[in-house]
Structure formats: structure tokens, C-alpha cells
Amino acid sequence: MAGPVLEMRSIVKTFPGVKALSDVTLTVRQGEVHAICGENGAGKSTLMKVLSGVHPHGSYEGDILFEGEVVQFKDIRASEQRGIVIIHQELALSPYLSLAENIFLGNEHAKGGFIDWRETLRHATELLRRVGLDDHPETRVTDIGVGKQQLVEIAKALSKKVKLLILDEPTAALNDEDSGKLLDLILELKKQGITSIIISHKLNEIRKVADSVTIIRDGHSIETLDVKSAETTEDRIISGMVGRDLDHRFPERTPHEAEKGAAPALEIRDWTVHHPIDQQRKVVDDVSIQVRRGEIVGIAGLMGAGRTELAMSVFGRSYGRHAGGTVLKDGKEIRTKTVAEAIGHGIAYVTEDRKHYGLNLIDTINRNISLTALAKVAKRGVVDEQEERQVSEGYRKSMNIKAPTVFEPVGKLSGGNQQKVVLSKWIFAGPDVLILDEPTRGIDVGAKFEIYTVIDQLAAQGKAVVFISSELPELLGMCDRIYTMAAGRLTGEFPRAEATQEVLMRQMTKDKEVTR
Amino acid sequence: MSTDVTDKSPAAAPPGKGGGSASGGGLLQLVLDGLRRNMRQYGMLIALGLLVILFQVWTGGDLLLPRNVSNLVLQNSYILILAIGMMLVIIAGHIDLSVGSLTAFVGGFAAVLTVQHDVAWPVALVLCLIVGAVAGAAQGFLIAYFGIPSFIVTLAGMLIFRGLTEIFLEGQTLGPFPDGMQKMGNGFLPEAGPHTNYHNLTLLLGFAVLAFVVLQEVRDRKRQQEFSLEVVPRNLFLLKLVAIAAAVLTVTMLLASYRGAPIILIILGALVVGYGYIMRNAVFGRHIYAIGGNLPAAKLSGVKDKKVTFLVFLNMGVLAALAGLVVAARLNAASPKAGLSFELEAIASSFIGGASMSGGVGTVLGAIIGGLVLGVLNNGMNLLSVGTDWQQVIKGAALLIAVGFDVWNKRKSGS
């Protein structure tokens, strides 16, 4: 393979009071797919922002060489002119504009200030084909799925004559099928001579597409490994990321012996939910599950399987239109029509999207923790601030939330610490049943272990835990029993001993074709 | 943006820093730290202080003459009352454009009752507050349960109440009000006790307030120690008490050396304490912050968002009615043009006082400080005979500077 297309030498980037990058060196060869991985907060995104000019020249130290010459980008436009295009984690498409309009946004085919629609549509169609989309270029972005939107972003990058494509966790919001397509496209673009940098948490992805991987830890570049080499195993990469061998990814756990006599703590019977807008579509179709006290029950499923929708619908009808089914708590039927009723019956739902549905980011740790169960620290509608503070201080210590005081706004915490605040909040509510939806999404390996430990303790205290996750190793490591869902239906149920990744995955992809 | 924050936080939040680490840093350091953390609040308080000093110098000492301080309170009371309610509305993530018209409407209603129909004024007062509550509830219902955006509902309300006022009053100005009601806008605490050079009841009231505040602070501190929580170091705590005492005593002496405390000031004081307490300590207040800060998260936490929104607007209606009564009583007449652009002054007060357009942020005290900044500007410029044309320009600039400073300060601290 050819020489380096990009060299970043000894990059140092400081924010007020914090050194985000202390000394990072990155060399990317012409025509390769180069993965960057590291724990959350290691500095991956910051590094890419330095490269693409989001943090302009002068705000960092060190040199960037692109195609052999030193470059000094003053903004993102300057880097795009050289052919460096970054696609961010949060997609930056305008939902009510068409695909074509989005592709050429800020870069329109125009004559004298007026858009040349013929050329726009012709060129858009060509670019969409290149990324494997056959949608009409006049379709609105909001009318296509997330997976396709990601491809439109790439088409947009191609329109800018991209030489180096940077993808920041491109598959984080995609299901396996769409992820696969996207990764294939990256390999296809590689054949066409486009170099890519891909930031990813998913090690199997890295193994699939990357030629080499650079590991970043605490603002330092640790090492660059050749992915194709036999020595570069997943465990090898993980140990580079965390700086320690990962023998114990999950706490030791004695499997739960279900008491056959007692009624399940929570039982959902024949639950069906319709899509909030498209009322014909069943998002959850006749699902029945149950969980006993002291038990951790997993729900495995790909994106769109209906897991979150099931949980949110049960939890106060927070999603879609309920079309049948009952909830039983300890064998008695209960009403969960509002969130308050659900909480009143001792059910807690810990959302998968903590930033939008879990926390008030501008408020303090203290007030976020107390919100659901304010009555516990209040007398006659009046909050006892000292008692409240004592409670949240307690959680800060016991959950190891890394913050100087409980008066820190949660928006300033890292993902793992935010997740601990969400968990504290729901534990404080004192539920019997906890529904945890992707409780370890987007948080680093160290914090994951802490969260697993907490979940384990909750079960040991006799709480019933429903554990929704896309990460199969996590379910296999934590659960006593695992349900699988696909396309809104329950497709399987396995005790811990019988479940393997292969078995679960087969059930998770099973009914998709049949129901369509 | 969000990735930035995550990148920085590990170093910004060092693990497990417990215990009484504060005492080592020195008093000045502590004061500065406190200032930095509550930049917005203290910033406006300091700005207000500077403004007072500036005008005091420019007007050759006229601003803080006892008589003028009394006036300042009376002139601004209704905006301050509205600003309290508006702050709640804005924290909840909404806006209310109808309050100016509603004050006029309630003033008109009061005049029709007492002047035209000889209804006893206490009865009229209660009826007026009920009318305000109903008007607020109607708007709140449309916003909370029907889902029409508050901007639209209250814009409609602004037109409707203004129109109804004109219909009610047939375009006329109606007055005068019975004595008892006039007192509410213009009255002072009665004279009592031995003859001194000061107003006795006002002095007494001032001392009572001071004693109450100090006791409260001391009690809080004790409770914190009981729960073995970190407390502010002793010397800083004493400094705070001295500052509070100085402020309370100054205002008390100023008022006591003229005609005493205006009745409206006492009403206003009760409102500030009451609403301040509700917003900070009541479950209801917490829920307002929660729905304004992140509505979906609040819903999923079991907060009854619709009910809270409804009550916030109902409350705004009651406060608007109270403001309407005060305006009418002070002018001793109800006019169809009363309360014009009051809503804008109340909104400006809230934003100067630290509210955020997107909701979830702000304090009742902030609204009062914001309202006083506008009030001092108004009063000071009047004393200097600045024309109303330039007054508006300067007030507009003040709003921009206050919020601009906020934005700049936020960007600097990277949040």
C-alpha cells in the first residue's frame, strides 16, 4: 500500500481547565480504512474536530500533514475544500428538504443564484446510486429511515469530492442490516480510492472493515495495530483501550432459582401496540413476558424489534396506541395508564435515551435524583432540602458518581456518570420492578462494570429486573433468562444455560421476512 | 457540542472530593468561587448596585431620597407582581402575552363593580381575583390540555381582553375608587406608638424581617450540620449575615424616614417570599423546573405536566388580576388603555433576571432583580428628565446587554 495521506503529529488540545488531547499522533495510509477506538471521553471526537477544522488552527498545538503538506484549516469549509469530510454521530440533514437538496446544501448547482434543478437531480441520482440507494432524489429526508439517511450523508460527502472520509460512530443508531450495508459501502469506496477513518465502539465492525486501528486513551495515542494480523484479537484491542486485561467483564453472579410457587412480580399478557401515526402497523404484536423477584430477564432484539416500544407502552402508555393486553403485578391485574400509576405500582422504566428522556440536563444531580420520588423527602408538598441533599450525597458516594458535589449540572457529566444518576433516580423511587433499556449504551468499559454490579445488587435485594439490550455478550453475562423479539413479536425464550449468541441471533432475525 | 462536554468532564470532575476542603482556600477565594458559580444571579445584583450608585451620583443624591425610594416601589410594584408570575410561565417553557390586557380588563371590572354598582370593595377584590383565575385557567386549559402553543393562545388573549375592556368601559375612564381600595395602591402602614423621627411600625417590621431572615439562615446551617453535610465556612457565613442585615436596615431606614412602608411593598414582600419558597421547596415548584428543563424526561418521571402547565397559567391570571387592581387603585381610575405593554416589561424583567428562552432556568428573586433594574432605569432617567423616546432605547439596550452577557458567560464556561 501507498504512503501516508494524513499525518497528525503530537497534537495537543486544551479546553479551559482540561487537557483533552495530551499527545496524539496518527498516521493514515493512502487508501486504507483506519479505525480509531477508545473509551468515551478518550478524545476521539476532539481529535476529529481538530482535523476537520471545527477547532481551528491556532487553538491546538502540533502539525497536520495532508497529502504531504502542512495544512492549517481555519474552519470546516477549508478542510472540505481539501477533500476531508466528517460525518457526525448526530446526522446533520434537514428533515423537510429533499434528498437532492440536502446533498447539495451549501454547495448548490446554481446559475446566477438560481438552482439548476436538472443538473441537481441528475447529479443527485448518480450519487445516490453510488451509495446504493434507489430512492427518488425528491423524496423528503424525513420519509426515509435512519439507515438510509446515513447513506445520504455519504452521498453528500461524495458530492464534495471527498478524499478522506471521517465517520464518527456511523452505526450507533443503525440495526445490523443497515450497519452491514454501510460497512460494505465503506469497503466499496475504498476500492474507488477513498480513504476512511471510522470511529467505533464495535470491535466486530473494526475487524470487518478496518486495515489498521489506532487506540486512544486519556488523550494519548497508545498504539496502532494491524487489524489483519492474527495477534490483533478483540481482547487485545479492549486491553489497549482500558489499559488492563479484561478478565472480568461481568460481576460474578449466582443464577437465580425461580420459586415456582409465587406469582411473577410483573407479568405482561398479550400486549399489542400500534404505531402512533401509522395506525395500521403493529409495533408490538401480542407479546407476553414475565419476571420474578430476584430475577434478571433479558430482552434481546435488533433495532425496530419493538422492545423499547413495549416497555414504554406498558409504562404509562408513553408510546404509540395501546390495542390490547394486561399487566399483572404479583398476580393481580393493575392499571398503568399513566406514568404516575405505573410508578405507584412499583414499576420503574430507565430509558435508553438518557439525554432526551431521562434527565433534565440543565438541572443538578441533586434535583434529578429526587424528582421521581420528591414526596419521599417532602412533608405536605414541601421539600426538605437538607434531607434531599443527604439522599443524593448518599447516591453520589454509593454509585461512585464522579462529581465534586451534587450541585453539579448533570449536563456536564460524562455518559457513564449520567447513567448512574438516572439509575440512582429510579432506585430512589423504590420500585419492585426495574425495566432497564440499554443501560450501558455509549458508556465506557469501566463504568459498564459498575453498572452491572449495581444491577446485580438490585436483583440480589429481590427486585425484578428486565434488561433490554442489543449487546448479546452483556445479556449472556447478566441474565437468568432471555427473551428474543423480532419485528414486534416474541420469537423465543431461553434459560441462561441454553443461550448462546448464535442461538439468540437466529431468533432475533427469525420472523422478519414472514411478518413483512 | 455534547461530545465536547463529555470529553472534558473526567478532568473537570475529579473523583470523590469530600469533606470540609473549603476552609483552606481563604475568604476572598471563597467569595470569588461563589460569585463565579452563581455568575448570573450575583452579576445582576451587582449590576443593579452599580446602577443605583451611578444614578445616585448623576442625580446628585435624589435617587435615594426617602421620598423617591417610596415612589420607586409604588411605581414598579405591578410590573414586579407580573414578573413573578411571568417567571414561572417562562421557567415552564411558555410565554404569556396577555397579562397587560388582563390587568386592564380586571381594573375595568373592578371599576364597574365598585363605581357603577357600589359593590363593597373587599367583595370586589375577591371577585376580581376570581375573574383573573378564570381567565388564566381558560388560557391554561387551551395550552395544556388542548395543545395550542402558549404564544398563540396568549396573543389571542391579549387582543380579546383588550377588546373586552374597551367594550366594558365603553371607551371611558372610570373612577374614583372607594378609599379602602385606593389604599392598596397608594397607602402606607398606619402611624402608631410614640413620636419619633421615624415611622415606628416600619421600623418594627424591618427588625422583624431581619430577625426572621437571620434565624432562618442559622437554622438552615444547623440542619445541614445535623445531616453532616458540608457547610459554608463560619467567616463567610458571618459575612453573608452582615450583608443581609445592612441591606434590610438600609431599606427600612429609608422608608421609615418618609411615610413608612407602602402597603403594596408588604404585599410584594409576601409574594416574593411565598413564591420563592414554592419554587425552591415545593413539589409543585420543582415540577415547573422539571417540565421546562426537559419535558419528555419529566413526563417519564411521573410529573403531571399538563396539570402543572394549567396551574402555572391559572396562577399567572390571579397575579395579573392583582396587578390590575393595584394599577387601578394607584391611578384611582380604570382606563381602557391601562396596562399597555406591561407584558413586555414583565417578560423583559424575567430575562434580565436570568430566565432562559428554552425554559427550566430562573428564580423569583431574579425576576425581582430584573424588574428593579428596569425600574431604577425608569426612575433615574425620569429624575434626569430623559425623554421617553430615549428611555425605551436605553431599556432595550439593557435587555440586550444582560442577556448578551449571559450568553457570553455561558460560552466561556463551555456549557
UniProtKB/TrEMBL annotation, chain A:
InterPro entries: AAA+_ATPase, ABC_carbohydrate_import_ATPase, ABC_transporter-like_ATP-bd, ABC_transporter-like_CS, L-arabinose_ABC_transporter, P-loop_NTPase. One of its GO terms (cellular component) is plasma membrane. Residues 6-243, 268-512 form the ABC transporter domain. CDD domains: ABC_Carb_Monos_I (cd03216), ABC_Carb_Monos_II (cd03215). Pfam families: ABC_tran (PF00005). One of its GO terms (molecular function) is ATP hydrolysis activity. Keywords: ATP-binding, Cell membrane, Membrane, Nucleotide-binding, Repeat, Sugar transport, Translocase, Transport. It is a peripheral membrane protein. It is found in: Cell membrane. Signal peptide: none annotated. This is Xylose ABC transporter ATP-binding protein.
Automatic annotation (TrEMBL), chain B:
It is found in: Cell membrane. It is a multi-pass membrane protein. Its main location: membrane. The chain crosses the membrane at residues 42-65, 77-99, 119-135, 142-161, 198-215, 236-255, 261-278, 308-331, 351-377. GO terms for molecular function: transmembrane transporter activity. Residues 1-22 are annotated as: Disordered. Coiled coil: none annotated. Keywords: Cell inner membrane, Cell membrane, Membrane, Sugar transport, Transmembrane, Transmembrane helix, Transport. It holds the Pfam family BPD_transp_2. The keyword Magnesium does not apply. The keyword Isomerase does not apply. CDD domains: TM_PBP1_transp_AraH_like (cd06579). GO terms for cellular component: plasma membrane. This is Xylose transport system permease protein XylH. The lineage of its organism: Bacteria, Bacillati, Actinomycetota, Actinomycetes, Kitasatosporales.
